[in-house]
Amino acid sequence: MTRLVGLGLVLAALSAAPLLAQDKQSDPKTETEHVVKSGETLGGVANRAEVPRVLIIEANGLKEPYALKAGQKLVIPRRRTHLVKEGETGFSIALDYGVPWSAIAGANGLKTDAVVKPGQKLAIPTVAAKAVTAAAPSPTPSPSASAAALADTPAPKFAWPLTGKVRRAFLPAGVKDGPHEGIDLLSPEGTAARASAAGKVIFAGQGPEEYGLTVILFHGGRWTTTYSFLSKVTVKEGDEVKAGERIGLVGETGMATEPQLHFEVRKNRVPLDPAKMLPKAQPRPEAKPKAKPQPKA
């Protein structure tokens, strides 16, 4: 499992989503979230924020006629800049900022399969994360619009992503056969892997070679979960998912040698033992779909 160490270094770049909330009295020219006041219009908010109206529309998924309501919260998409370092990839940069690579690529006029190069400057867009921020307290305001302060929120109520025998448990660094930064759950090929808690999909696709097909969810504050060895991914980057919603199907991609799910829980990039975050009892196995009767000849 030493091959997972290098992978762990990549996935250790996991970070929470960009700062979405600012002090109510923050400067309109630097705030990253704006609470709509009575009588305000989208054009007025955009002018005071000095951000193009279309970017606010896209960041918040607004629909025509773009009417605003008092008390409505709008993400103001301030852009940060990242200077690509040696050894970084689009995958690792996306995880570090908690922003889907597709959004970063789009903000820089790149194709999603583009290879980044050391010294390249990338604009990092602010992406709304409605479902995962609703229950989280507002973070402390950052000293600048480009600083992504993180709220130290309580752990979400995690649930088992599926029912299955633990093939391999979590092992910290420094112990025999460690580190193993998650747990591996045996389950038949094609079993639904489900979101352990409500969150936003920040990665969905082919991860580092050892992990195979992977989905990573951001749960607000500093919390993320990772689901790997999948045979199929059934969500896409940017999706908001509910607890228990299917995010993929069990497989044996990556370094898996039999059908199983590799599951990780991280807080502030640090891997934690999922078994300590999950209920003691696993849910009952899902009923297998009945085979359709074959028509008689």
Describe what you observe in this structure:
With about 300 residues, the chain is of the alpha+beta class. The protein folds into three domains: about 5-10 and about 155-275, Distorted Sandwich (Glucose Permease (Domain IIA)); about 35-75, Membrane-bound Lytic Murein Transglycosylase D, Chain A, CATH 3.10.350.10; about 80-125, Membrane-bound Lytic Murein Transglycosylase D, Chain A, CATH 3.10.350. It contains seven helices and 14 strands. The strands form three sheets. Strands 5, 6, 7, 8, 9, 10, 11, 12, 13 and 14 form a ten-stranded antiparallel sheet that branches. Strand 13 and strand 14 form a beta hairpin. The longest helix has 9 residues, at about 5-10. The chain starts with a helix and ends in a 20-residue tail after the last helix. About 40% of the residues are buried. Mean pLDDT is about 80; it is low at about 10-25 and about 130-150.
Q: What labels would you give this structure?
A:
10-stranded antiparallel beta sheet, 297 residues, 7 helices, Membrane-bound Lytic Murein Transglycosylase D, Chain A, two-stranded antiparallel sheet, Glucose Permease (Domain IIA), 3 domains, alpha+beta
